[in-house]
Amino acid sequence: MSSALLLMCLLAQTDSPVKTDVADPSPLETFKQEASEYAIRLDDRSASKLSVDPKPLLHWSNPARTAEDGAVFVWLKDGRPEVIGTMFTYKIETVRRKHEFHSLSASPLTAEFKGKLAWKPGKPGVKFQSIPGAQAPAETSRLRQVQLKTLARDYAATIKSLEGEISELRLLPQPLYHYEPKESDVLEGSLFSFALGTDPEVLLLIEARRVKNVLTWQYAFARFNYAELSATFKGEQVWHVDSDAAQAGLVIGDRAHIEKIYTSFHLN
Fold first, then answer.
1. What share of the chain is helix, strand, coil (3-state, %, to 5)?
2. Is 246 exposed, middle or buried (0-12, 13-18, 19+ CB in 10 A)?
3. In Å, how far are 32, 135, 215, 218, 221 from 127, measured between CA atoms?
4. I need a surface site. Which of 88, 150, 181, 261 has the fewest CB within 10 A?
5. Overall pTM surpassing 0.90 (yes/no)
């Protein structure tokens, strides 16, 4: 979702972009409809579909970049987010439509859009680690939610554009999603985001998880941009991903990237 120049070059090598009505009176409704048309399953096609929360977690924009407008959704299993995705538009010469996903699951999964295979990551999407020095999860949900927000403030994140410019990302004060799963080793958790404007670029999950029957706070990061991203905990780097610039010009179903845990593609 960055580097207009690279996008123009890469898109010139793909099929013609989908043109949309710039004057669409309700782009948010279009995003909701597109999210509802995904069938996402853990492990294989025979498994039950994950349920998509029909209410977007966030309706975001980034007018300073390429007039971006989008909405973020989650797909759930027993109340826990297993997949996060955003449907969005941006404008370079014409309005283009793009989808972006990251697996938050411990399982492989398959995603189809209108019956067409769109994404099939074959490995876990996130790796949880214990939060150093964190107190044990509190006994009540109300107190645990206070703990979650306090713990999130110890983290920071940056994005490095394809041109080499480094920007500090802003931790949004409220989590994108808070959850208390059913029948899970996760007691409670929150999904936080670090953003440019309101556009989420880095995702932080913090969960109260049972490890050998002991509840402990653990965290995991996920990218939501193909640029180079980094995160720190109390000033020490704990997470980093290199840029994946080829994601800028992908179209749905591209075999070169269909198995990655993070994908970003245009509708063709």
1. 15, 45, 40
2. middle
3. 29, 21, 17, 10, 8
4. 150
5. no
What 8-state DSSP symbol labels residue 45? T
* Domain extent at residue 179: 4-266
The token duo for 97 is 């439509």
How many angstroms separate the CA atoms of 216 and 189, rounded? 11
pLDDT for the residue numbered 43 = 85
Contact 246, 238 (CB under 8 A): no
Distance (Å, whole) CA 137 – CA 224:
28
- What average pLDDT score do residues 27-34 get? 94
Mean of the pLDDT values across residues 108-136? Answer: 96
Q: Measure the CA angle with vertex 188, ends 182 and 194; round to 5°.
A: 125
pLDDT band at 224 (very low <50, low <70, confident <90, very high): very high
Please give the tally of structural domains in the chain. Answer: 1
Per-residue pLDDT, 10: 43
The alpha-helical segments, DSSP class H, found in the chain are 4-11, 27-36, 63-66, 141-152
